[in-house]
Automatic annotation (TrEMBL):
It comes from Staphylococcus petrasii. SUPFAM superfamilies: 6-phosphogluconate dehydrogenase C-terminal domain-like, NAD(P)-binding Rossmann-fold domains. Gene3D superfamilies: N-(1-d-carboxylethyl)-l-norvaline Dehydrogenase, domain 2 (1.10.1040.10), NAD(P)-binding Rossmann-like Domain (3.40.50.720). Belongs to the ketopantoate reductase family. This is 2-dehydropantoate 2-reductase. One of its GO terms (biological process) is pantothenate biosynthetic process. Keywords: NADP, Oxidoreductase, Pantothenate biosynthesis. Pathway: Cofactor biosynthesis; (R)-pantothenate biosynthesis; (R)-pantoate from 3-methyl-2-oxobutanoate: step 2/2. Its EC number is 1.1.1.169. InterPro entries: 6-PGluconate_DH-like_C_sf, 6PGD_dom2, ApbA, Ketopantoate_reductase, KPA_reductase, KPR_N, NAD(P)-bd_dom_sf. Residues 179-304 form the Ketopantoate reductase C-terminal domain.
Length: 310
């Protein structure tokens, strides 16, 4: 079975490393030239929960994948705004049964992926593994997951089983989600509050809990997300989700979320259009207003512009 990781930054190379260590035939693919060059030249240096590994995993830049290469399973791990380009680069390497796995943050990636494979071949999900990229070729993977996965349509269930077995063998701690859409929307609540607010306020997760104003914003954003989630048949209780988020912020208090790290530390563009922006857009499509989510998305964009983020 040939596996490709399409988008091998922090999390992609982490998953790639876990699969490679179990003997899977894995190829890393990435669009950022420094990352591709570093791994091709000197392998991947990765810290997995404190253990150092140096792995010579095959790697291609997305523009140089051999013409005849075909992959049976492709894990998509780009940033949301890079997904379209990556799909274009890999489309000729997809065969009639290729399974596409997407556990990226953000809403509705399946709409884009469905332009390349039918819905039954898309395995969607979310993950709480955390990863970072210190410099090209040097990354870390932390935590224990899980990776929650599910099918978009009933016929996709056998593909979920296949991906589950791969992830389980690679010790990536898969779970079959009992309600895929609910798992996705709950993760949107986490990202739409913690990522967005810590980036705007330039603070740690624990700081959100310390401010009455910030906690009210967490509540209001959550309330809107919960209302918009109903268009996907997801019925969450805003108070329960809010309590879960406050608890989570306490547990991972000293941490700066990934959006903060992208924009504030590295001046990189954020996935805000696929999180709060996507909530507001989807809401508008269904006549449900989400003005606080739109405001938060605009604030993050203003900050990106101010910092000339790329
Ligand atoms: P990433 O930013 O590390 O990698 C995405 C792309 O950006 C890769 O092509 C990578 O090589 C490139 N890149 C990395 N650092 C760069 C830099 N400084 N300058 C220019 N390009 C750079 O993204 P990720 O964290 O692996 O996330 C992939 C997807 O997984 C996203 O949707 C993210 O939200 C989601 N996710 C990430 C984590 C995490 O802990 N990293 C956890 C859960 C979900």
């Amino acid at each position: 079975m040939k596996i490709a990781i399409a988008g091998s930054g922090a999390l992609g190379s982490g998953f790639g490393a876990m699969l490679y260590r179990q003997g899977y035939d894995v190829t890393l693919i990435d669009g950022w030239e420094p990352q591709a060059t570093a791994v091709k030249k000197d392998g991947l240096h990765i810290d997995i929960n404190g253990e150092q590994h140096h792995l010579n995993i095959p790697m291609y830049q997305d523009t140089e994948i051999p013409k005849d290469a075909k992959y049976d399973v492709i894990f998509l791990f780009t940033k949301a705004m890079q997904l379209h380009d990556m799909l274009q680069h890999i489309q000729s390497h997809i065969h009639d049964n290729t399974i596409m796995v997407c556990t990226m943050n953000g809403l509705k990636h399946e709409r884009k992926i469905a332009n390349y494979v039918d819905e039954a071949r898309i395995v969607r999900g979310v993950t709480t593994w955390t990863a970072g990229l210190e410099s090209p070729g040097h990354t870390h993977l932390m935590g224990a997951g899980p990776v929650e996965i599910g099918a978009l349509v009933e016929e996709g269930q056998p593909n979920v089983d296949t991906v589950f077995d791969i992830l389980e063998k690679a010790k990536l701690n898969p779970h079959k989600s009992e309600d895929l859409q609910q798992s996705i929307w709950k993760k949107i609540c986490v990202n739409g509050t913690a990522n967005a607010l810590c980036t705007i306020l330039e603070c740690r997760l624990s700081n959100l809990n310390e401010s009455d104003y910030a906690r009210k914003l967490v509540y209001k954003i959550t309330q809107e997300i919960v209302q918009v989630a109903t268009v996907d048949g997801v019925h969450l209780n805003a108070d329960e989700v809010y309590n879960y988020l406050i608890d989570l912020n306490d547990k991972v208090g000293p941490h700066f979320p990934s959006m903060y790290q992208d924009l504030i530390n590295n001046n990189r563009l954020t996935e805000i259009d696929y999180i709060n922006g996507a909530v507001a857009k989807l809401g508008a499509e269904h006549h449900i207003e989400a003005p606080v989510n739109q405001f938060v998305a605009n604030m993050v964009h203003a900050k990106e512009e101010q910092r000339h983020a790329k």
